[in-house]
Amino acid sequence: MKINCNLVKFDEGLDLESGARLDSFELMTETYGELDEDKSNAILICHAFSGNHHAAGASEHSEEAGWWHNIVGPGKAVDTDKYFVVCSNNLGGCAGSSGPLSINPISQAPYGKDFPSVSVVDWVNSQKLLSNYLGIKKWHMVLGGSLGGMQALQWSISYPESLNKAGIFAAAAKSSTQNIAMNEVGREAIRKDKNFMNGDYLLHDIKPRSGLKTARMLGHITYSSEAIMDQKFGRNFQDIKSKIDRDVDYQVENYLQYKGEKFSDIFDANSYILMTKAMDGYDASFATNGDLEKVLSRVKAKLLVIGFDSDWLYPPQRSKEIQLAAMNVGVACSCVILEGKQGHDSFLFASNRYVDILKGFIES
Amino acid sequence: MNIQLKNIIKNWIPNESKVIDFGCGDGSLLEDLIDQKGVCGYGVEIDHSKIQECIIKGISVIEKDIDEGIQDFESSNFDVAIMASSIQCLKEPHIALRKMLNLSKQCIVTLPNLGFWKCRLDLASGKMPVTPNLPSSWYETKNLHLCTIKDFEKLCESEGFSINERFFLNDKGNKSILSSNIPNTFASEGVYLLAKK
Questions:
Q1: Interface of A with B (CB under 8 A)
Q2: Is this prediction's pTM over 0.90?
Q3: Which chain A residues are Cβ-neighbours of B40 within 8 angstroms?
Q4: Domain encompassing residue B91
């Protein structure tokens, strides 16, 4: 598989939904496979909250396989032997694209908490500029799970002529009250970490690691399901030698400690707040006063909406709502609810049926 | 679905109408309707392998148990709802018909006729009927509510459904003189276009 990783600079800048403007910005972008001569085989993957541009196989830039390597690769559901697959780190992220860690050209210091608020609509607009840069007039498909699914949905609304198909997995047309509530607990943990320094921690060369860790531990619970936690850890005790913290009793505690710790090494706290705010703020029907049908009536892409039965963060009902609104206004839309033990995270795993449906839809 | 039956259904579907096919199977009827009549079509199916075939054909398909889900689509305003060879498999066929006519102006129903002479012969000789239209043995069949042409039309009358058009096919799938004139005995299958009175 041919993998390219590039930092693409956009000197034209971007007007953001908030009214702010970025005079220029950069998107860290990875591509897999090769673009056809007529540029008709391009697929855009949008990442979820804590994802990044590294979606598929290991590369010279990263030894680890990407976050969606189960789904994207040679011969896989999103087949990089046939399609040119693109994934970029969202604006405001912390994996190379412009975000709180970037240097503010005015102050010549990192933006930190002053990086402007971004939204799902802004991400889609920035990705549209990326498609112009790549010379792609029409994506064969735009797809993603969770917050990535929201971007795929928004693509079909913002740029109806610029994609043939959209895949919206484990997502919703808007964040629910419960989603916002969960995110606020995470943000509160970060803000109340004494090292957060009101968002100015970079100036003091420290990091609110403990807050980030707690936020991620809660996140992992919401991405999982009761059944898979029970199956993976049960009520088993962690053996003394491999305990991360002496207060740990059970394996599940150790797992959450480990995951939280690892996350706090790599993720930026301001970016965490920015990304979760973007997620909370998403409502596809905001411009039409809550009328989802009205906003979907402009969609021209064929939609594939997939929910997972054990997902309680973006439960199957959210998928069915998108399907029903699309059908009510005559937009082509298929909807299946798949078995997936992993809760919200099920969209990351390649169950047989998920792969068959996705492959069938891409190639139909 | 045989060609004769497909043609009857096709003729009843207005061009560019909005159609929902409950129990759409592999989506081949919808595929024809989309290609030939330019309809905006959706299928509802529960069988995983049939859903997969619909997806491959590019047909919009929704995974749902018809017994539980018809009313979910009430807001969709369809021109025609189709239920081919499935009504007798539902838990409450009369309620399903009411719901279909709540979400659609017209509804097309096809059903096997238990009054067909071959069924009567089977029953007279003391066996459950097995015919081309009722191919499964009694222990394998998904049919819960079999009826005759007479029974079905009586239901339509008592429910206040108007039968706008109907055709009766013999077991070769043809509109024969006998099946058309003495349907309760000689039709193997009834095909109805229903609307609310």
A1: 302, 304, 320, 323-324, 327-328, 330, 332-337, 353, 356-357, 360-361, 363-364
A2: yes
A3: 330, 332
A4: 3-196
pLDDT in tens, A226-243: 999 999 999 999 998 889
Do the beta carbons of residue A158 and residue A287 sit within 8 Å? no
Residue B15 buriedness (CB in 10 A; 0-12 / 13-18 / 19+): exposed
Phi/psi at A232 (nearest 5 deg)?
Answer: -75, -40
For residue range B80-131, list pLDDT tens digits in order: 999 999 999 999 999 999 999 999 999 999 999 999 999 999 999 999 999 9
Cross-chain Cβ contact A357/B54 below 8 Å = no
CB contact under 8 A, B72 and A320: yes
ipTM of the complex: 0.94
Domain harbouring B84, CATH code:
3.40.50.150
Q: Which residues of B touch A304 (CB under 8 A)?
A: 55
Which residues have a Cβ under 8 Å from the Cβ of A239 and sit 6 or more positions away? none
Query: Domains in chain A and their CATH numbers?
Result: 3-174+283-363 (3.40.50.1820), 179-277 (1.10.1740.110)
